[in-house]
Amino acid sequence: MNLILFTFIVLLGFTSYYFGRKKAYTIQSTKKRLTALPQFYGYYLAIWCAIPAFIIFSLWAIFEPSIVKLLILSDYSNQGYLDDELNLIYEKTKALSRGQFTGEITPFIEASAEKYLSLRSIAQSSKVVIVLSAIIASVAYAYKRISSNSRTREPVEKFLNAVLFTASLAAILTTVGIVFSLIFQTIDFFKVIPLFDFVFGTHWYPAKAFVRDSSEALDPTMYSDTFGAVPIFAGTFFIAFIAMCVAIPIGLMSGIYLAEYASIKVRQYAKPLIEILAGIPTVVYGFFAALTVGPFLKELGTSMGLEVSAESALAAGGVMGIMIIPFISSLSDDVITSVPQSLRDGSYAMGATKSETIKRVIFPAALPGIVGSILLGVSRAIGETMIVVMASGLAANLTLNPLESTSTITAQIVVILIGDQAFGDPKTQAAFALGMSLFLVTLCLNIVALRVVKRYREKYE
Amino acid sequence: MIKIKAKDVDVFYGKKQALFNISLDIEENQVTALIGPSGCGKSTFLRCLNRMNDVIDICSVKGEILINDFNINDKGCDVVRLREKIGMVFQKPNPFPKTLYENVSYGPTIHGIAQSKQEMDEIVETSLKKAALWEEVKDRLHEPGTGLSGGQQQRLCIARAISVRPEVILMDEPCSALDPIATAQIEELIDELKKEHTIIIVTHSMAQAARVSQNTGFFHLGQLIEHGSTDKIFKNPDNKKTQDYITGRFG
After folding, report:
1. Which of residues 186-245 of A touch B (CB under 8 A)?
2. B188 within domain boundaries
3. A461 interface with B at CB cutoff 8 Å
4. Does residue B111 contact residue B139 with C-beta atoms inside 8 Å?
5. Is B42 among the domain residues?
6. Across the interface, which of A263, A346, A459 has its CB nearest the CB of B90?
7. Does B106 sit within 8 Å of A350, measured CB to CB?
8. For residue A456, what is the nearest residue in chain B, using CA coordinates?
9. Hey, of B59, B94, B153, which one would you mutate to test binding to chain A, going by the most A CBs within 10 A of its CB?
10. For every residue of B178-241, which 3-state class applies, written as one string?
11. Interchain contact, B146 vs A340, CB within 8 Å
């Protein structure tokens, strides 16, 4: 029903566009000069069609359910029901009206369900009537109003502005919403687990919270050595460090090669090929690390007499580094290419060779941008999940041996939140606390990276 | 005395020929101006003299260019040494994004000219003094060179070019991005520099060519139409095209 109505309104919109433009053409044919192109008159009318429809639809969506509920429950007032019981009655009514009710049907509820259905159908038909009459009234009003010297361009532009603004607002509000959901759960978590234990504790063993009988009362002291985040913070930074040890040199050197040495033809093929690396799903990197690199390193280690875990930090970090190469190489290539040619000329004209020019002039000039690209790479390494989950193990060892398995913030969040969750449990909330700290770290890195990149841009554009 | 002798120089950009059969002698310790309308090849010719055209992949140079009787287009020519001897100043001031000091010490560093920090300090000071910039910047040698005004930046680039004591300085429209006052300072400087260096300047300003140069070459459509003493070219040119260009009838 709503879909048909919506389609009809869209059709009305097109019709009003057509009429608006037609009126503009008619005015034009009388040799009067219009204040805007004819299609602006069309858009103007279409907007007059869209706005009332949008307003009425939103009002309906907001108020209809609560008004219907009020009317249904008015039958039960003065009968001494508690709020919770009233809610239950309302839910039963709704379920019955949909034919999904399974319990015992009382005559009261049956009557309510019938009333509910009739109220809904009244609401629906009145919505149709009101929307359509509002649209027709507003379009007719606007149609009468437009003349050769009415302003149509400005309202249309303003409307577009508002639409685009709403779109970007949606993205921003989502971010804010995510942050808030993190904040509240995190605060709840720290009510049970002291912040000090979380930040400085060296023992991470959330599975201990699993074995608790849920009927038992919560005993914070029991958790004092369960949620010490130091091992997983250390693991996160350690794996990110290994990844950057791979990604920075290779990425940077290939970036320099592409920007300064590669001929146009080589660059044409090499650049997209390197960027393919960025298009590989991280799951694929994950099983590459877990099933190819991990066992290979283990065998290699064994043949050299070293003890290598099948799920080692080295395998996960190394593959993660390969994943990050294209970010660094592509960004630093862009940054180096945007260093003005005049600087290269100046250096060559002094008799500097290519490598001297790169080392002494181009690299320093591009450094802020390169640092920015590295920081973006680091924040990706810290936030990377799949490779770590698959290739680096889930036990949170506090170790600096790259051949042992270790775990990261992201992997622990996955471990905690996989399967059924008990909300309000410190174990689940620990995931939010971890998510919050991860968010803070990457946020800081991104802010620093963007600032550095921006400062660089101001210099040359 | 003749410093540079160009013989039958042809330059191609890919298949397109940009210079045709240029033969030109450049006098030592004098200023030679190259004039002509845009796209006539005067900058291309200038860039042949320190082999800056090597930087452009599709560019190829034919013919002989003798500097001190040595053909720089020979395979045996060391471009690094050549560019140490032939300095260049560009159209747009292009100081490196480094400090003033590092800008000037750049050349001496890569050519290993200075043996000690003290020697380097001296080179920087003399170069800046010769470029008439010392008094203005002596208290902020360790600030970035990009913070100077346009005219100061260009004088910094000149200081950078003369820091390695080149025999020849090539200037590619060095004043086109500068205001009249900065231009006057640079022209004065050119007059001073010609005592120790041979200078070749490409310019769009006829007045500038007349003011600073002793010899002038007029280029048109990739050909050297006429060259000779500046006096003669401006007062009594042999060629009708030169006459037309100088009197402003075309170009």
Report:
1. none
2. yes
3. no
4. no
5. yes
6. A346
7. yes
8. B97
9. B94
10. CCHHHHHHHHHHHHHHCCCCEEEEECCCHHHHHHHCCEEEEEECCEEEEEEEHHHHHHCCCCHH
11. no
Report chain B's C-alpha Rg in angstroms: 18
Domains of chain A: which residue ranges?
2-148, 223-460
Residue in B92, B97, B107 nearest the CB of A350: B107
Report how far residue A223's alpha carbon sits from residue A233's, in angstroms, rounded to the nearest whole number: 18
The residues with which B4 forms a beta bridge, in sequence order, are: B26, B67
Choose among B52, B95, B160: nearest Cβ to A348: B52
The answer to whether the Cβ–Cβ distance between B161 and A349 falls below 8 Å is yes
Could B96 and A347 be called an inter-chain contact, meaning their C-beta atoms sit closer than 8 Å? yes
Residue B103 within any structural domain of the chain: yes
CATH number of A223-460: 1.10.3720.10
Asked whether A202 and A231 are in contact (CB, 8 A), the reply is: yes
For residues B150-166, give the mean pLDDT: 93
Is the CB of B55 less than 8 angstroms away from the CB of A345?
yes
- Average pLDDT of chain A, as a whole number: 85
**Which residue from A345, A361, A459 is facing B90, i.e. has the nearest CB?**
A345
- Do the Cβ atoms of A42 and A24 come closer than 8 Å? yes
Q: Which residues of B touch A351 (CB under 8 A)?
A: 79-84, 107, 110-111, 164
A&B contacts, CB < 8 Å: 68
Q: Is B51 on the interface with A (CB under 8 A)?
A: no
B96 and A344 in contact by Cβ < 8 A? no
Q: Give per-residue pLDDT as tens, A78-101.
A: 777 777 888 888 888 888 888 777
Segments forming the whole domain that contains residue B139: 2-246
Phi, psi of A152 (to 5 degrees): -115, -25
**Is B57 within 8 Å of A263 when comparing Cβ atoms?**
yes
CATH code for the domain of B224: 3.40.50.300
Instruction: Answer whether residue A224 shows pLDDT above 80.
Output: no
In this predicted complex, what is the ipTM? 0.91
Give the model's pLDDT for residue A429: 82
Among candidates B94, B97, B164 on the partner chain, residue whose Cβ is nearest the Cβ of A364 = B97
Higher pLDDT, B54 or B119: B119
Q: Does B87 touch chain A (CB under 8 A)?
A: yes
Integer angstrom CA distances of residue B37 from A166, A434, B220: 54, 68, 7
Q: Which tens digits make up the pLDDT trace of A8-21?
A: 889 999 999 998 88
Q: Is residue B251 part of a domain?
A: no
Quote the number of domains for chain B: 1
Residue of A nearest to B108 (CA): A350
Judged by a CB distance cut-off of 8 A, whether residue B55 touches chain A is: yes
Q: Closest chain A residue to B165 measured between Cα atoms?
A: A350
pTM for this model (two decimals): 0.76
What pLDDT score does A461 carry?
40
- Say what the pLDDT of residue A423 is: 66
